[in-house]
Write a structure and sequence with these properties.
The complex is a heterodimer of chains A (547) and B (164). Chain A is mainly β. Chain A contains three helices and 31 strands. In chain A, the strands form four sheets. Chain A has a 24-stranded antiparallel barrel. In chain A, strands 6-7 form a two-stranded antiparallel ribbon. Chain A has a two-stranded antiparallel ribbon with strand order 8-9. In chain A, 37% of the residues are buried. In chain B, strand 7 and strand 8 form a beta hairpin. In chain B, helix 2 runs parallel beside helix 5. Classes of the chains: A mainly beta (547), B alpha+beta (164). The interface between A and B is large, with 92 and 64 residues.
């Protein structure tokens, strides 16, 4: 600590001597929790999560110094104590992130903490979702080097963040990418752009298991390609992981693999994209006994639409990392101005379809049940779709501007949600829901606008029907006021309504938001993992700023 | 005590830097174009005219609202000030393939790039999107703003006009 301090003071001194640049950001969230009879949210009911502190807060600040080719930064985080719904590992305060980086002659060196992604991230991705408490940053050394134009090499060694600590496992990785058109002079002028990439990642963790002989080094490799020709685009990545018995896969010795392919065609006013993926035993962590969102090395994207409307986020999909296959198609289209449908301003159409199924799983022999610990677990036909459906969704959104002041956006979503497989509500099984949303935007006068949302979700399963209304008034560029209410009128157990009022003030890069009301219990998904947040009632204040 | 000293050191250096110079240079970070090419942000240029850099994502409604609003007045803005808008998507592998079709489907006339692991977003200390920066002819950040309310583009345009 003393050494660190003196280094920092020294650095600070040096900074002051030169003409570098400091920048940073800050966020702080406070919540005062109030007892609520309808939600049974109180001290007498410990399972409701009511905090005995009554008042909780999360906060962080990043401070970064840059001077031409050098940069360094730190982040301080404080959870005193963490807001409800945050992983319990966030407790206390301290410096959780510090790094120094310089680049010279095509070489870029980072020591300390860093985030990184190889390819699509399916083999390695360190990133943060601060509002969900996700952070798997590395602490180690990273080198990036570009030996010639169009060729990019990366290598890293590090351990991953686990709340205020680090995982025990070491992660080593190399990645290379070549843009053929830039690297080879003869291809410079060709209209077809081709990029090739490959990665190798390995983790090391000592084996202390008395019962099994576990691999201490687990390697994985990936190759990827991207081809672009005028309006067409095609991408694919394949990842293979050697045997990696872990808590998540029930300690089976099967290898893992993942394939992600996507293509798109687009021009002004029209866009179409298609994507397909298959994931087989690809949970990859730097400690084999970890679960939840902890120490994940890779990122397995959910190929489903990410919704913004409140009722459409009640049943969110999260990748099932042990195995799934899925498809997604999305169409964006702008009906031309002046046409019968388009009217004076045109009309926007956005349609999306996605589905996800289990992968095929067969017993390795007649006597060994599927996924038996210490065996190869199962065998799987790569091209065969499993019988169980995990998810399916169709959505369409039409947006239409009526005149200079008024705009409507109408949305319909039909979802099939296998709750037992995705979040473990076994007794609800498949949840079928239909959602309608009508959003209205009206400009009252210059800088004054009002926006309303009416949403309805109908389902015969789980908590039944919901209705929601929202009205938001904004005065550009500083103020907003909003009221909303969610009402779970279809719930046969307890019909609860969740009213909230909020207001905010923005100035430049600073934002203050205050809200008071009830929060429904919900699932929030990130990466391959979903997390439950309890219902609550309270007063919250959020402040963010950057400089 | 040590912590207090450390905090004091950081605080004082922050203050000193802030007092020195309010203008900051746009950071140099590698991002990708929609056709997969690596682009460094230090290559952003617009013949000495202002540049607007706006962060968005396919799942961010206010972001789309802001870029739609700028699209409607973009011809007038360009005519008057020569400004160029660069829209940077922070969509990751989940939505990366949808970025170009989404932007094209919306008929946005902007340069579109992908910052799929948020490297540039982090280098610019962006807390949440939408977040918009205005750069002068030397690629220095002269103004920035977080979130979007209807009509915010008018304030942005006033700032752009100040650069002419």
């Amino acid at each position: 600590m003393k050494n660190l301090l003196s280094i920092l003071v020294l650095c600070t001194g040096t900074l002051l001597a030169q003409s570098g640049q400091l920048s940073g950001n800050f966020q702080s969230d406070f919540q005062l929790y109030l007892e609520d009879e309808a939600l049974d949210f109180n001290l007498e009911n410990p399972s409701s999560g009511f905090p005995s502190e009554r008042f909780l807060s999360n906060g962080f600040a990043n401070i970064m110094y840059t001077n031409s080719n050098f940069s360094a930064g730190i982040r301080y985080e404080a959870y005193q104590n963490a807001l409800l719904g945050y992983p319990s590992g966030y407790k206390g305060e301290g410096i959780t992130y510090r790094y120094a980086q310089f680049s010279k002659n095509g070489l870029d060196v980072t020591v300390g903490n860093f985030y990184e992604q190889f390819g699509s991230g399916m083999i390695l991705r360190a990133y943060e979702e601060r509002n969900l408490g996700y952070d798997n940053a590395f602490d180690g050394i990273r080198l990036k080097y570009s030996p010639l134009k169009g060729v990019y090499l990366k290598s890293l060694v590090g351990r991953q963040r686990l709340f205020f600590d680090k995982g025990e496992g070491l992660v080593r990785g190399v990645d290379g990418e070549v843009s053929l058109n830039e690297a080879f002079v003869g291809l410079n002028e060709i209209k077809t752009q081709v990029l090739l990439g490959a990665s190798f990642v390995s983790k090391y963790q000592k084996d202390l298991n008395p019962a099994y002989n576990l691999p201490e080094n687990v390697g994985s490799w990936a190759s990827r390609m991207s081809v672009n020709h005028r309006r067409w685009n095609f991408n694919s990545e394949y990842v293979h992981k050697y045997n990696d018995p872990s808590a998540v896969n029930n300690y089976i010795y099967k290898t893992g693999n993942a394939l992600l392919m996507s293509g798109s065609y687009s021009k002004r006013g029209f866009g179409l994209s298609l994507a397909a993926k298959r994931i087989d035993n690809m949970d990859y962590r730097s400690e084999r006994d970890q679960n939840l969102q902890n120490l994940i090395i890779n990122y397995l994207p959910a190929l489903t639409k990410q919704h913004a409307y409140t009722l459409a986020t009640i049943y969110p999909y999260g990748t099932i990392t042990t195995g799934e296959m899925g498809l997604q198609a999305e169409l964006n289209y702008k009906v031309k101005k002046g046409s019968r449908l388009g009217g004076k301003y045109g009309m926007g159409v956005l349609a999306n379809f996605s589905n996800v199924y289990a992968i095929d799983k067969q017993q390795i022999d007649a006597f060994t049940p599927l996924d038996s610990t210490g065996t190869l677990g199962y065998s799987s036909d790569f091209f065969k779709v499993g019988e169980e459906k995990y998810f399916q969704e169709f959505s369409i959104e039409l947006s239409k501007k009526v005149n200079k002041k008024l705009k409507f956006i109408g949305t319909y979503i039909n979802t099939e949600y296998n709750s037992a497989a995705i979040v473990g509500y076994s007794y609800h099984g498949m949840i079928y829901s239909d959602i309608f949303v009508l959003e209205t935007q009206y400009k009252i006068k210059s800088k004054h606008s009002i926006r309303t949302e009416i949403q309805h979700l109908s389902t015969e399963q789980h908590e039944g029907n919901w209705v929601m209304g929202l009205a938001e008034y904004t005065i550009s560029p500083h103020y907003f006021f909003a009221v909303q209410n969610l009402y779970n009128y279809g719930n046969t157990d307890k019909k609860i309504s969740y009213p909230t009022v909020s207001a905010g003030y923005n100035k430049g890069t600073s934002r203050f938001a205050l809200s008071y009301g009830k929060q429904r219990a919900g699932i929030f998904c990130v990466g391959g993992v979903c997390r439950n947040v309890p219902a609550s009632n309270g007063l919250s204040l959020s402040i963010t700023s950057s400089f | 005590m040590k912590n207090a000293l450390l905090a004091l050191a950081i605080f004082s250096s922050t203050l000193t830097a802030l007092a020195q110079d309010k203008i900051s240079i746009f950071p140099s970070v590698n991002i990708k174009s929609t056709d997969g090419k690596m682009i460094n942000t230090n290559s952003f240029e617009n013949d000495g005219n202002p540049i607007v850099v706006s962060f968005w994502a396919t799942w961010c409604k206010p972001c789309a609202k802001e870029l739609d609003a700028i699209t409607e007045v973009y011809d007038d803005w360009q005519e008057e000030t020569g400004v160029k808008v660069i829209a940077i998507s922070i969509d990751d592998a989940r939505n990366a393939v949808k970025v170009a079709p989404y932007a094209n489907g919306k008929d946005w006339p902007f340069e579109i790039y992908l910052d799929s692991n948020s490297d540039l977003k982090r280098a610019l200390n962006v807390n949440a999107i939408p977040h918009t920066f205005l750069l002068n002819s030397k690629n220095e950040i002269v103004w920035q703003h977080t979130s979007y309310f209807d009509g915010d583009e008018e304030e942005l345009f006033e700032e752009i006009q100040k650069l002419k």
